[in-house]
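(Deposited chain)
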Amino acid sequence: MLLDLVEMFRDVIPIILTIVFFQYIVLRRPLANPRKVLLGFLLVIFGLYAFVVGLKMGLFPIGSSMAEQLIQRDNLIFIYLFAFTIGFATTMAEPALIAVGQQAEEAAAGKLNGNAIRLLVALGVAIGITIGVHRIIEGGSMHYYVIGGYSIVIVLTIIAPRYIIALAYDLGGVTTSEVTVPLVTALGIGLATHIEGRNVLIDGFGLIAFASIFPIITVMVYAILMQWMATYRAKQQNTSIEKVES
């Protein structure tokens, strides 16, 4: 446990040195509140330490254990259902996604709803992880799945509204954060470990890639549908006005 704490401190040191260098050497100004900043860094170190210990004690074991128990039931429906629900639930709990959703809602000035974005991203992650689990079970090549997914993304990028494209790509990265990654990775490794003929290194990983691709798709599809609906309503209104005037 003490070794984990030392490693956390070692990992945070480059951040501290970078900030100190630019603050005192480049900007040549002292920190406004050095005691508060120091306390903040200490809290970050202890927070990361607690998070890593929690992963080792809880999330990794439970993810692997659930995969093993589901395989023993010999019912693929429950495996797919677990993959879908765990993807949806963990994404909804992502702090980074909540923050990005709120900022996007503020910046969009009424065009976007933060809660709708969270639901769409969570749905995309759930779909992606379910497809990734299917790949592990069936033993298919990941190349075709990833190429197919990004081919859809490229097509949607061409036809999607410009205001949603950058946000959609960012949301794909937000999903690979603190809550989703440990459980999803443990699920993939657990499935590959307990399915005969699977290689943990080749088949056990890759679920995070699916969790990054499909939120981009769901968000852009939503934006495209909303744009089409808005255009259709505008045409209907113009038609009604023309009928009244005539």
